[in-house]
Prior knowledge:
- By secondary structure, the protein is of the alpha/beta class.
- The chain folds into 2 domains: 40-55 and 72-219 and 435-491, Rossmann fold, CATH 3.40.50; 220-431 and 508-554, Rossmann fold, CATH 3.40.50.460.
- Helix content is 44%, strand content 16%.
- The protein has 22 helices and 15 strands.
- It has helices spanning 6-13, 20-23, 43-49, 87-101, 115-119, 127-131, 152-164, 176-191, 220-241, 257-266, 274-279, 284-300, 319-335, 339-343, 347-357, 360-367, 371-377, 394-411, 437-455, 509-523, 539-542, 547-558; strands spanning 29-36, 57-63, 74-79, 106-110, 122-124, 167-174, 197-202, 245-250, 270-271, 306-311, 421-426, 461-466, 476-481, 486-491, 494-499.
- The chain has a 9-stranded mixed β-sheet, sandwiched between helices.
- Helix 10 (257-266) crosses helix 20, helix 12 (284-300) packs across helix 18 (394-411) and helix 13 packs across helix 16 (360-367).
- The mean pLDDT is 94.
Amino acid sequence: MAKLSPLQEERLKYQPKLPKSLSQGINSLEMTEGAATQSVRDQEQINALFANTYGKPVVTFSNSGSSKVSEVRNVGVILSGGQAPGGHNVIAGLYDALKSANPDNKLYGFLGGPSGIIDGKYIEFTDEYINEYRNTGGFDIIGSGRTKLETEDQFQESLKVCKSLNISAVVIIGGDDSNTNAALLAEWFVKNNTGIQVIGCPKTIDGDLKNDQIEISFGFDTATKTYAELIGNIQRDANSAKKYWHFIKIMGRSASHVALEAALQTQPNITLISEEVEAKQMSLDSIVNSMADIIAKRAANGKNFGIAIIPEGLIEFIPEMKTMIANLNDIMAELENDSSYIAATSMHDKFAIVERRLDDVNASAFSSLPAGIKAQLLADRDPHGNVQVSKIETEKLLIEMISSKLNEMKSQGQFVGKFSAQSHFFGYEGRCAFPSNFDADYCYSLGYNAFALINNGLTGYLSSVRNLTKPASEWIAGGIPLTMMMNMEKRHGEMKPVIQKALVKLDGPVFKQLSDNREDWAMNDRYLFPGAIQYFGPSSVCDITTRTLQLERAKELANV
């Protein structure tokens, strides 16, 4: 093993905290079932597609006071999708629970994501191997991938590999798409009487995989604290230099939870929320005008600096951009095999071909964009056939358009200041940080709890640990059916079952906290400087949860 930094050495020694129910013995758990459940939408279609796993109850665990013998089990684990802080601890918790239940149990890690279970690429975990990764960031323990598990051939190959290793359960650690894969695999295994269980774990720094039973997805806490530290540093610099506007794009394609949480932690001058833009049908021009107005007002007060937070997926929520991108996605699928487009030697020629294919209104929106943004819109699609919005430099687009607007205002005597802008994109910086104490504890509990679900014979469930604003000992462990979170959505031109994304609620307490303070933060510098994540010290500093979770849980608890 390579030489470790002092922090690495200390983090390896950290012993994550568990809910009281789980800490008193994996073989002494008693399971309580709630009422039957149904999907969030499209109940008939989801029920038909998941006839063998639909409608199961929510379950919770408590300690029975008596211990039972656990049969020998071999379990496989998969890391799926993008990295999120704490993934290693999910595997460590799963491993410790499995070995605690029966020392003869084995845990296999499939390499490179879901493709590992198809191709039969794996390692068997040992104490020595696991111990090198406890409380560390990243997914390098077995690697990750984005292969979808959805075809008959993939399921058959997965079954062969599981049978060859005598695996009786598979744990898939991932976000909404990955846990949709888990639901499909669980259904197929039951339908074909394989005897193999499937359990999911809720991972995504985007924060869009949550509901009443999944209060937060793991990695969100660490990632937002990491981004907040960086934003705080930039705010301190801006408040010192007093000459730059910083436009900071933050990861989060389909939902703005990360941007919203980072804003609450740092209190910048401007925060855009994609869901609000869509709900209010705000055009690109109206966004630019609103931001330019704040910049001009601050300049009139002698403040030629400020901070603007922009969610990664913003462009897809702007009505005219959303319509244009949807049209563009369909056209780009057609142009993949179009000889004239393939033969085009310049981007100008490609733009012209695309504009001719787009509907008139969408062609107008496309042609109004800078060439660099157009090129980014034509880049390779993601696995769903959609624009890769992380490659679209929305922050630079806004800077360019605002600069033009301010020049226009200056010519009319409406802007008397200076505008110098810096652009930033915080993405990968937050995905593999050392997990915060909260994420270290939460992830370990999720993994430990995943084996509790397996040990109690469940399949098609997502590991759930709740009551997260309380000390870890008071957390509630259990599970929810994966089908409970599903609806039908259009993917690659077909309606498919997927786990519904949880977007920012504009009538919720978290967004209200932002909207109530926007005007004050815009004109007055109420910057907060969170600093680096703290791992040692008082619990009020080291174990603190996100503002999002505190505000959401405060409302829920008030209604109890």
